[in-house]
Each structure stands twice: as structure tokens, then as C-alpha cells.
């Protein structure tokens, strides 16, 4: 008996990003209001707060749906998610006026430029981080909820 496996997969998926985003939001608030750094947190944090937990949950539901078929291990499955989130974040950033492409890098929040080398390194780090988070944390929550 396995009642509501997709609901449990969604809940197991959203745990990690929800907790991480609480710490990120606390850091943004401290930097903005305590240290008086003029960054528009409401525009910078909207995509991660609105999209990432839901994407983790939906991606975990997709992993559960794939289980009867040949599929990737959960770590590799999770490492694919940044390949979807980064282009979606870029499109949203362009739409909201947060990002602009320049010859030397990405102009972010109309205040500083991130060089392409830094972005490539950050993307590689994100792939590794997502792999580890999915392999150990999301996989753990899947086992706890009995859907692994």
C-alpha cells in the first residue's frame, strides 16, 4: 500500500531548497538592512524563492514517475535540474531587467558585472552541489517517506 506517492515525492523534494532558501533570505536581509548594501533583494530573490522549491518537488515527482522505466541514478537526475533552471532564470532575469549580457560578462542588478569565467565556475559548482544534494539529501528524504 503506497497512498499518494507523488505527493510524498513532492514533499521530499521541497525540503532541502526550502531550508536553504530561508538561510539565503536571512543573509540577504542582513546585507540589505543591517549592512546597508543597496541591492534590490525583492528582485534578486524572487526567482529562487518562487521557482526552485517547486522545481525540486516536481523534479522528484518526475524521478518517481520514471522509476518503473530505465532511469538515471538520483544524483545524476538531480544534476540535470540546473540545466533547466539556469536558462529559465536567465529568461526571467532578462524579462525583469535584472540581467543583461555584456562582452565581458553578465551585468547583474544594474550594479556589477559577473565575468563569464566566474559564471562557468559557479555553474560547475552548482552541478556538483545538485548532484550531492540529490544523492544524499533528497534520496534520504525519499527513503524516509518510503518512495525510494
Keywords:
148 residues, 5 helices, globular, mainly alpha, 72% helix
Describe the structure.
The chain has helices spanning 5-34, 41-44, 46-66, 74-96, 116-144; strands spanning 99-102, 105-108, 112-115. With 148 residues, the chain is mainly alpha-helical. Strands 1-2-3 form a three-stranded antiparallel β-sheet. The chain has one domain. The radius of gyration is 17 Å and the shape is globular. A hairpin with a 3-residue loop joins β2 and β3. The model has no long low-confidence stretch (mean pLDDT 88).
Low-confidence stretches: none
Biggest sheet, open or closed, and with what strands and sense?
Answer: 3 strands, antiparallel
Spatial sequence of strands, sheet with the most strands: 1-2-3
Beta strand count: 3
Radius of gyration over all CA atoms, rounded: 17 Å
**SSE series:** HHHHEEEH
Structure class: mainly alpha
Number of domains: 1
Question: How does the SSE layout of this entry go?
Answer:
Elements: H1 5-34, H2 41-44, H3 46-66, H4 74-96, E1 99-102, E2 105-108, E3 112-115, H5 116-144
Antiparallel strand pairs: 1-2, 2-3
Helix pairs in contact: 1-3, 1-5, 3-4, 4-5
Amino acid at each position: 500500500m503506497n497512498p499518494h506517492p507523488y505527493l510524498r515525492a513532492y514533499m521530499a523534494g521541497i525540503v532541502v531548497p526550502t531550508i536553504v532558501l530561508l538561510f539565503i533570505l536571512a543573509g540577504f536581509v542582513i546585507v540589505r538592512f543591517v549592512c546597508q548594501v543597496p541591492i534590490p533583494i525583492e528582485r534578486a530573490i524572487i526567482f529562487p524563492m518562487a521557482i526552485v522549491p517547486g522545481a525540486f518537488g516536481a523534479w522528484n515527482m518526475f524521478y518517481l514517475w520514471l522509476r518503473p522505466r530505465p532511469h538515471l541514478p538520483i544524483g545524476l537526475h538531480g544534476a540535470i535540474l540546473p540545466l533547466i533552471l539556469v536558462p529559465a532564470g536567465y529568461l526571467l532575469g532578462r524579462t525583469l531587467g535584472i540581467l543583461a549580457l555584456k562582452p565581458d560578462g553578465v551585468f547583474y542588478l544594474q550594479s556589477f558585472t559577473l565575468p563569464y569565467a566566474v559564471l562557468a565556475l559557479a555553474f560547475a559548482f552548482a552541478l556538483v552541489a545538485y548532484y550531492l544534494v540529490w544523492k544524499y539529501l533528497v534520496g534520504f528524504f525519499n527513503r524516509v517517506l518510503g518512495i525510494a
